[in-house]
Design brief:
The complex is a heterodimer of chains A (634) and B (213). Chain A contains 20 helices and 19 strands. Chain A is an alpha/beta fold and 634 residues long. In chain A, α6 runs antiparallel to α7, α14 runs parallel beside α15 and α17 runs antiparallel to α18. With 213 residues, chain B is α+β, with helices and mostly antiparallel strands. Chain B folds into 2 domains: 110 residues, Pseudouridine synthase I, catalytic domain, N-terminal subdomain (Alpha-Beta Plaits), CATH 3.30.70.580; 98 residues, Alpha-Beta Plaits (2-Layer Sandwich), CATH 3.30.70. Chain B has 5 helices and 11 strands, in the order βαββαβαβαβββββαβ. In chain B, strands 1, 2, 3, 4, 5, 8, 9, 10 and 11 form a 9-stranded mixed sheet that branches. A two-stranded antiparallel ribbon of chain B has the order 6-7. In chain B, α4 packs across α5. The mean pLDDT of chain B is 93. The chains are: A alpha/beta (634), B alpha+beta (213). At the A-B interface, α1 and α9 of A face α1 of B.
Chain lengths: 634, 213
């Protein structure tokens, strides 16, 4: 029986998103379990069901006979309105029961703009959104995932944060909870017990302190918990992926998800070290799985799901050391069973083109290149190890093999960026187009489809650019206009809404004061800010203006730079001082040290490249975990 | 049992999948066939698809005991094996009712049926709504209503598209309507038009397709 009555389901879009019962969904008898866990994704079913981490932890938690993990997604606003009208509460898909009676409500935090949706889901569940207002009987609200590496902006809403690899620590948290429950401990006692688990952060036991100017001082244990809870929270890391829990099943949705296929995580972490990329640092060290175990997983997942497609997942497919062995094995397996393989983020070279021919079914239209910046100078600043020659070599190869569409990804607003860098984005696109016609040698050819896609750089915590200031809204608009005008009508041009980037920037480096901002905005808009049709920029700006400073905002870095103009001693001193300031996320230790980030920041300003982890260890600090690329022969 | 290449499978769709749209439902079938390791034939062309031909899409919210799909195999097998393999992989709420080997030439699935019988559970504030609906149906010579189509709304007489109208022992409406190449009438439209004609309000609680012919 579905929790939502049929008469309501008949009136909403895609009702099968709410009725559960999908293949491989786990239904247990609640009398047989000690811990009920509502795994929430603060976005629609289709987005949430595309997320690998949730699928992995779902299967892992359910492999414990005494745990029952269920899925919860944000109901689409049409259903939400009807739920509120009829006094219905947020429910879990498997049991179709209200989650306010569960032991845990867990959120995976994938992007900052989903924060308002978290509040909305808690409210829809019938629970107070602030942790301090939730009573003894309310579930423990726990967060994990990349965005909570800086947990402070949402600290007031959560009871527990899981900082690190979920499969390494989440079962431990649940086991400890079950044990405490058996002893009849109070919620507060349970939280205190959980705080002893490495990687766990209990925000209620810590306070955020500010000076009289409203500048951030520190996050530290409250007086009464000094000595009882750790001063710094160290990210918990699964030292090796190989041998760790591997998925054998995944839930197959009835309603098509955005990524509706088998997903194989070939490695976690990244060896690159692009200075703008948070994922490149917070998942270190890079840890691979072997082709043998991946092939075994592929086989078992396709047998249990019947999916027609397998996708390889990682931060950069090319960096997988056994790619040929893996793809050969996959082709052999999938070829005989009418399955497709999709390889996202693959560099174009003769190997990959050959591969694409073999896996067929690739429409000869689209290829993508992420150059990120228009000039070599700026690419060196951001440590993006790709050159224009690499692009042209790949484009040439692609065009010679019948491709005619190219999508080029760039960012604007990167530190030190000048108008010259911005205009070079359009110039690069023009050069690619010229190359296409040059190769056609006067033959009549299909017009090339060259698209430039631009997003605005958002400085993130735990990156070497965490100290830089985002360019202003007006600057974003002006730079987008520069590119658009320079490109003219022959090119496709798409860009991310500047408004979203501005708000993302506020939240990404916010401190605990931002909880009030998120709350105020949610009160007025109702969430779903990650969807541009529901996002209300003016509300964010108004509330932000009302509250003033809610986090670290960074400082402006001088435009241009080495080798055109070497940093003056004075400027160097100034920068060094500015990057030694305290940051709201300093109490979280991700393994990669602040010293390393400072070093990288200064290197960036001198356009100095840092080699990838396999070429040379740069001593970032992640070696403390004793795993992955940090050990052995790399 | 003899092997064959083409089978017509009849099945039921229960409560558990009643909100699954037709396109999504096709995938449920395809993936079940994959898991069952049935060697289904694939179409040629750039984007090969399984050779499955479904009957009329069942509207979202309906359940049914009279659904059909034609499956063409790459490797012939016997019907019993196919049915049991498939039954083992389909969700609980999809039940196989029968399987029939087809030989070319055969009547295509959409041309094989022209009428559907539905059991419609109704509710109304008016205790005499059944009598009033029956009256309205029996007394009228024509039932003109606005029918929405892609090209807009147009007036149609739906009376000739209704082949049977009665109430069963539970008080549910049993209605037989056109559902084929010659015409198509959804039971909801029949009910709402008759309710208008009888000047009463009725709510449809559930529609179950019981048979096709």
């Amino acid at each position: 029986m579905s929790y939502i009555p049929d008469r309501i389901l008949m009136e909403v879009e895609k009702p099968a998103r709410y009725t559960g019962g999908e293949l491989n969904a786990v239904v247990k008898d609640k009398a047989d379990v000690d811990v009920r866990f509502a795994f929430c994704f603060a976005d629609s079913y289709e987005i949430g069901m595309s997320h690998l981490g949730m699928k992995l932890l779902y299967e892992l938690l359910n492999s414990y006979p005494r745990f029952w993990c269920e899925r919860v997604f944000a109901p689409w606003p049409d259903l939400e309105a009807k739920m509120r009208e009829n006094g219905l509460k947020l429910f879990a898909l498997e049991s179709q029961e209200e989650i306010r009676n569960f032991d845990f409500i867990g959120f995976t935090l994938q992007y900052e703009l989903s924060y308002t949706s978290i509040l909305n889901m808690l409210d829809l569940a019938g629970l107070p959104v602030f942790a301090r207002d939730r009573g003894e009987d309310a579930p423990i609200v726990i967060g994990g995932g990349p965005s909570c590496m800086n947990p402070e902006p949402i600290a007031d809403f959560f009871d527990v944060f899981n900082l690190g690899d979920g499969e390494e620590m989440l079962p431990e948290i649940l086991l400890k909870y079950a044990e405490c429950r058996k002893k009849g401990m109070t919620k507060h006692e349970i939280l205190l017990a959980l705080s002893q688990i490495p990687g766990v952060y209990i925000p209620a036991l810590y306070g955020a302190e500010f000076d009289e100017n409203g500048d951030f001082l520190r996050v530290a244990p409250k007086e009464e918990y000094k000595g009882l809870v750790p001063e710094t929270i160290s990210r918990r890391v699964l030292p090796e992926l190989e041998g760790a829990f591997m998925m054998k099943k995944q839930v197959v949705p009835y309603v098509e998800a955005i990524h509706d296929r088998i997903m194989l995580e070939i490695f976690r972490g990244c060896v690159r070290g692009c200075r703008f990329c948070q994922a490149g640092y917070i998942y270190r060290p890079a840890r691979e799985r072997t082709p043998a175990s991946l092939l075994e997983a592929a086989r078992s997942l396709s047998e249990t799901t019947g999916y027609e497609e397998i996708s390889l997942l990682s931060l950069a497919t090319d960096d997988y050391t056994c790619l040929k062995e893996l793809t050969d094995g996959l082709i052999e397996y999938t070829g005989s069973s009418h399955m497709n393989i999709s390889l996202p983020s693959l560099r174009i070279d003769s190997f990959s083109l050959d591969l694409m021919e073999k896996i067929s079914k690739v429409r000869k239209s689209g290829l993508t290149f992420a150059l990120e910046a228009g000039t070599q100078r700026l690419r060196d600043v951001i440590n993006k190890g790709i050159s224009e020659e690499d692009l042209f070599r790949s484009a040439r190869l692609a065009f010679e093999n019948g491709y005619y569409g190219v999508k080029l990804y760039f960012m604007i607003g990167l530190p030190t960026e000048t108008d010259e860098d911005v205009l070079a984005i359009a110039a690069t696109a023009r050069k690619v187009r010229d190359l296409y016609y040059e190769l056609s040698e006067g033959r009549k050819v299909k017009a090339p489809q060259i698209t430039v896609s631009v997003s605005t750089f958002v400085p993130k915590a735990f990156t070497p650019f965490q100290w830089t200031k985002q360019i202003s809204y007006e600057e974003i608009k002006r730079k987008l206009r520069l590119i658009k005008d320079a490109l003219g009508p022959k090119y496709g041009f798409s860009w991310q809404d500047p408004e979203l980037s501005v708000v993302e920037n506020i939240l990404a480096r916010a401190d605990r004061r931002a909880s009030r901002l998120i709350y105020n905005v949610w009160k007025r808009t109702g969430g779903f800010d990650s969807w541009s049709e529901f996002f209300k920029y003016d509300v964010w700006l108004e509330e932000k203006a009302r509250l003033g400073k809610v986090g670290y905002e960074g400082f402006e870095v001088k435009e241009g730079g080495f080798p055109d103009s070497v940093l003056s001693d004075e400027l160097r001193e100034d920068y060094l001082e500015r990057i030694s300031c305290v940051l709201p996320w300093d109490f979280v230790d991700i393994g990669v040290t602040k010293k390393f980030m400072q070093r990288e920041f200064m290197k960036a300003l001198s356009c100095e490249i840092t080699p990838d982890c396999r070429t040379k260890c740069s001593g970032c600090g992640a070696a403390v975990y004793g795993g992955g690329v940090c050990v052995g022969d790399r | 049992m003899a092997t064959a290449e083409i089978f017509r499978v009849s099945y039921s769709r229960g409560d558990g999948v009643k909100f699954v749209s037709h396109l999504d439902f096709v995938k449920v079938f395809e993936r079940a066939l994959r898991r069952a390791c049935v060697d289904v034939a694939f179409s040629n062309g750039f984007n090969p698809r399984m050779e499955l031909v479904f009957g009329n899409p069942l509207p979202v919210g309906f359940t049914s005991d009279a659904e059909f799909v034609d499956i063409t195999l790459a490797t012939p097998m016997d019907g019993e094996t196919l049915a049991s393999k498939l039954a083992g992989e389909l969700p609980e709420s999809i039940k196989i009712n029968g399987i029939q080997a087809l030989e070319k030439p055969y009547v295509k699935i959409l041309a094989s049926f022209s009428k559907s019988v539905y059991r419609v559970t109704l509710e109304s504030q008016d205790p005499d709504f059944r009598e009033k609906l029956t009256d309205a149906y029996e007394k009228c010579d024509s039932l003109v209503t606005l029918k929405k189509s892609k090209s807009g709304e147009k007036e149609v007489d739906i009376k000739p598209l209704i082949y049977g109208f009665s109430f069963d022992g539970n008080g549910d409406l049993i209605i037989k309507t056109a559902s084929g190449p010659e015409g198509n009438l959804r039971p909801e439209l029949a009910v709402s038009t008759l309710a208008d004609a009888a000047d009463i309000r009725v709510t449809i609680i559930h529609v179950h397709k019981t048979a096709v012919e």
